Amino acid sequence: MTASTPAAPPLDAVDGNDPSPLALDRLIHERMRLAIVSTLAVHEMLSFNELKALLDTTDGNLSVHARKLEDARYIQCTKGYDGRIPRTEYRLTATGREALERYLSHMEALIRRVGERS
Predict the structure, then answer these.
(1) What phi and psi, each to the nearest 5 degrees, are found at residue 62?
(2) Contact present, 27 and 68 (Cβ < 8 Å)
(3) In whole angstroms, what is the distance from residue 115 CA to residue 66 CA?
(4) Which of 2, 58, 102, 118 is the most buried (most CB within 10 A)?
């Protein structure tokens, strides 16, 4: 930056939001949890096995991350039976959809701000 180049506004001054990378929703920001929430955003409901296949992950990895999202009320988990076979189903909650939309808006603002500086 030269002396005549105006200083760019701070990253936290975009659209009244805080596009700082530090303000990201850390719960969703983790790769597998973002994949779970994003996948459920485009499917009304998925079984554990369907979600596991779509995300190409292991039972343990999906279980751990889905539990964190369930604890935050971002997804809803329903357990039941399909005949005699246990079946677990996941749905995105309204809270989860709002969190995903907030996260995506935050990322868009951050990308826009970085693009303005380059």
Answers:
(1) -65, -45
(2) yes
(3) 33
(4) 102
Query: Letter for the amino acid at 101?
Result: E
| pTM tops 0.70, yes or no | yes
DSSP secondary structure letter of residue 23: G
Pick from 33, 44, 49: which is nearest to 91 by CA? 44
Q: What is the pLDDT along the chain (118 residues), one digit of tens a residue?
A: 344 444 434 444 444 456 677 778 999 999 999 999 999 999 999 999 999 999 999 999 999 999 999 999 999 999 999 999 999 999 999 999 999 999 999 999 888 888 887 7
Q: Put the strands of the sheet holding 75-82 in their side by side order.
A: 46-47, 85-92, 75-82
- DSSP state, 16? T
| Angle, vertex CA 16, rays to CA 25 and CA 97, nearest 5 | 40
Task: Tell me the torsion sign for CA atoms 40, 96, 10, 22.
Answer: negative
